[in-house]
Design goal:
344 residues, alpha/beta, Rossmann fold, 7-stranded mixed beta sheet, 6-stranded parallel beta sheet, 13 strands, NAD(P)-bd_dom_sf, N-acetyl-gamma-glutamyl-phosphate reductase, cytoplasm, NADP+ binding
């Protein structure tokens, strides 16, 4: 059994990590940190965890964390990169759920996240934590950059077509919708119920920080420069991401061939569910589970539409982080992740 810590345990991602890790048979959660809530019982802030943990939040330093095997960073951008050098030097493995190590270019990070990267030398060491594509790199890694929620849904949807060289590089569109939990637990006017209910709002149309992450990953898959028009929308729901992905094929394929491509690509992936051709995955069918459901459409010959749905807090964040933990230690990848989606 390994001992793990969660740095930043009061946000939605932090408590979701704790929900998934507490029953994990190979894990002891030894530390969960919060400067603002230090000394308070975790189940006092999150009563859903009553009877499952006696942990208290603590305000610990990097040195206090050095005896752990793995640390999860569920923190705002900028925290993990400050603490990573000392922890890595002490032999701790890190899984970062922020954006600090997702982009390979420190200048690109500074451009989109409006802060200088304090540990650029570590960027080449970071593996991009999307196991379905980069499992071998993750397996030997000491620093895993957990992907963003939107990039997870978009990348899994486009990947089989790009790997096979079937998509025209220009004109890719990712039209995505997310629940309000994706914006975090901090109170903001636009996220309160009277402002977000009964309304759909696009944001970041001229440029969203997940776009360079999506384009870098897709370009890596394709072996060529890929640009995507990525448009996110805020939906009046708590959890979920739905991505509608548009592309043009170099030449038309039969519906059966498209379906077979995706079915074979993800046949051995426990957390990607390829639905029958022409179906419509919905966010409510993945709620609470570490799964991406995908369906294909070809409205006209050569025009392909991929629908991709995930829970932004699970496959889009905490669940994927636990999946990466399982890969790191060569455990069955679905260990601790067998939750059935919640309905209604």
């Amino acid at each position: 059994m390994i001992r793990v810590g969660i740095v930043g345990g009061t946000g939605y991602t932090g408590v979701e990590l704790l929900r998934l890790l507490l029953p994990h048979p190979e894990v002891e959660v030894a530390v969960i940190t919060s400067r603002g809530e230090a000394g308070q019982r975790v189940d006092g802030l999150f009563p859903s965890l009553r009877g499952h943990t006696d942990l208290k939040f603590s305000a610990v330093s990097g040195k206090d964390l050095q005896g752990l095997d793995v640390i999860f960073f569920a923190t705002p951008h900028g925290v993990a990169m400050e603490m990573a050098p000392e922890l890595l030097a002490a032999g701790v493995r890190l899984i970062d759920l922020s954006a600090d190590f997702r982009l390979s270019d420190a200048a690109l990070f500074a451009e989109w996240y409006h802060q200088e990267h304090s540990s650029p030398a570590l960027l080449p060491q970071a593996s991009y934590g999307l196991p379905e594509l980069f499992r071998d790199e993750i397996r030997g890694s000491r620093l895993v950059a957990n992907p963003g929620c939107y990039p997870t849904a978009v990348t899994l949807g486009f990947a089989p077509l790009l790997e096979a060289g079937l998509l025209e590089a220009g004109g890719l569109i990712a039209d995505c919708k997310s629940g309000v939990s994706g914006a975090g637990r901090t109170a903001r006017l636009g996220l309160i119920l009277p402002e977000s209910a009964d309304s759909v709002t696009a944001y970041g149309v001229s440029g969203h920080r997940h776009r360079p992450e999506i384009e870098e990953t897709l370009s890596r898959i394709a072996g060529a420069d890929i640009q995507v028009q990525f448009t996110p929308h805020l939906m009046p729901m708590i959890r979920g991401i739905h991505a509608t992905l548009y592309g043009r094929l170099h030449k038309p394929m039969s519906n059966e061939a498209l379906q077979d491509l995706f079915a074979q690509r993800y046949a051995q992936e426990p957390f990607v569910d390829v639905l029958p051709f022409g179906e419509h995955p919905s966010t409510r069918t993945v709620r609470g589970a570490n799964v991406c459901r995908i369906a294909l459409h070809q409205p006209r010959p050569g025009q392909v539409v991929v629908l991709s749905a995930i829970d932004n807090l699970v496959k889009g964040a905490a669940g994927q982080a636990v999946q990466n933990l399982n890969v790191l230690f060569a455990w069955p990848e679905n260990l601790g992740l067998a939750q059935i989606p919640l309905l209604p």
